[in-house]
Amino acid sequence: MDIRIVNISLDNFENAYFLGIGGIGMSALARYFKSLGWNVAGYDKTPSPLTESLQQEGIDVHYEDRNSSISSPYGDKAKTLVIVTPAVPKNLGELLHFQFNEFEIVKRSEVLGLITKTSKGLGVAGTHGKTTTSTMLAHLLDQSEVKCTAFLGGISSNFNSNLVLNPSAAYTVIEADEFDRSFLRLSPFASIITSADPDHLDIYGDAAHFREGFELYAGLHPENGVVVQKYGLNLPTAAKTITYGINEPDSEYCGLNVRVENEKYLFDVQTPSGKWEAVELGIPGIHNAENAIACIALCQFLGVDEATIRSGLKTFLGVKRRFESIVKSQNLIYIDDYAHHPTELKALIDSIRLIYHDRKVTGVFQPHLFTRTRDFFEGFVAQLSRLDEVILLPIYPAREEPIPGVTSDALLEKITAPDKKLMLPGEVVNYLSAHTEGVFLTIGAGDIDRIVNPLKKEWSE
């Protein structure tokens, strides 16, 4: 396993140039370097709300490949750090220019690795729940005297940003992403590890090597740190281990009695120092209650008191596209969610059934990646079959080429939901706009988010 560890000092640079600046993680770094007073610019393939926000903040963003025509001051290789995302084509003219002229070129995860060397990194790792849990953790710490800087993988509804800045804080919250083994480039002091269900098998090969990646990550923590891990993961580490879970009586932090009362989402927590009753969470979802328990454990380790934690959980508003309530009326509920793995679908549907147990549930699902659809085909079939109506979109390919036989048609054939159909994104809005009652979900990690605002407009008028 070849993991490059970058040994440079960020103090040597004044300019940051991003290739793929519109990505959620890349844009957070762009904002961070801008806050340090660096010159920041970058390329992305297409405009988006994120790139438009960056431009409004004074960051130079362009959408055409400028090849070697790089504007000043980014031509100074001694002072310019080039940060690239894996999604950028290898034949991009600007990338080839920087490579030919031997600029310092690093991945986003490598930059985060450098940042965690100069602060106490608080990683949030796991196949599921990274973005919500890291955003929740950042909100709790920001509400406390501990404070933190945070690089988030989504737009926090509390901060309305993917970056939280507290320059004097000792801690930095980072999503420890297992894709491309990125998290092995970090230097974490403490972490929450939510899950290690196999994923990205195109990179890891099989479940055993995927598990090995998480074991290596847990092994990066120092003895005076902590790994808060979901009960049953049993990841070895030299750091202190704290376990958590829902209805796991042998875990050190155990969530109990998850319920909805008077439209409040409540749960109890048995902690090593006593029982917390009726903890209120600002967003619904059984999985979010579990994420909250992990945050309680880590925050207590960091010295945050119960009253501050309770207040932070109550005021947490969630993350865009994570169980995000878009329309809520007496007859019609519309929720948008990023779920793109069978385990995430199960958590989403379990939560919907708990809250809206007597309503018809219609889900619009866009499978993400041919390899993921192939590797977890039966799991997708099982979970989507639990919906009352399923609308499948074609598979979102991202970086992949098609795989023969792996299609949304093949999924649709196996799904046993009473009402099922295949549609193009443009057809969905017209079809659903005629519906006036029920629970509706848009689900997936591709570009399904582009139909969210049109549906919101139809159902809000």
Please characterize this protein's 3D structure.
The structure is a single chain. The chain has 461 residues and is of the alpha/beta class. The protein has 15 helices and 21 strands. It has helices at residues 24-35, 49-56, 93-100, 108-117, 130-143, 201-204, 207-218, 286-301, 306-314, 342-355, 370-375, 377-384, 408-414, 425-432, 452-460; strands spanning 15-19, 39-43, 60-62, 80-84, 104-107, 120-125, 149-156, 161-164, 171-176, 188-193, 226-230, 240-246, 253-261, 264-271, 274-281, 324-328, 332-337, 361-365, 389-392, 419-422, 438-443. The strands form three sheets. It has a ten-stranded mixed beta sheet with strand order 8-7-9-6-10-11-12-13-14-15, with helices on both faces. It has a six-stranded mixed beta sheet with strand order 16-17-21-18-19-20, sandwiched between helices. A five-stranded parallel beta sheet has the order 3-2-1-4-5, sandwiched between helices. A hairpin with a 2-residue loop joins β13 (253-261) and β14 (264-271). α5 (130-143) crosses α8 (286-301). The longest helix has 16 residues, at 286-301. The termini are far apart. The model has no long low-confidence stretch (mean pLDDT 93).
Task: Provide a short characterization of the protein structure.
The protein is α/β, with parallel strands linked by helices and 461 residues long. It has helices at residues 24-35, 49-56, 93-100, 108-117, 130-143, 201-204, 207-218, 286-301, 306-314, 342-355, 370-375, 377-384, 408-414, 425-432, 452-460; strands at 15-19, 39-43, 60-62, 80-84, 104-107, 120-125, 149-156, 161-164, 171-176, 188-193, 226-230, 240-246, 253-261, 264-271, 274-281, 324-328, 332-337, 361-365, 389-392, 419-422, 438-443.
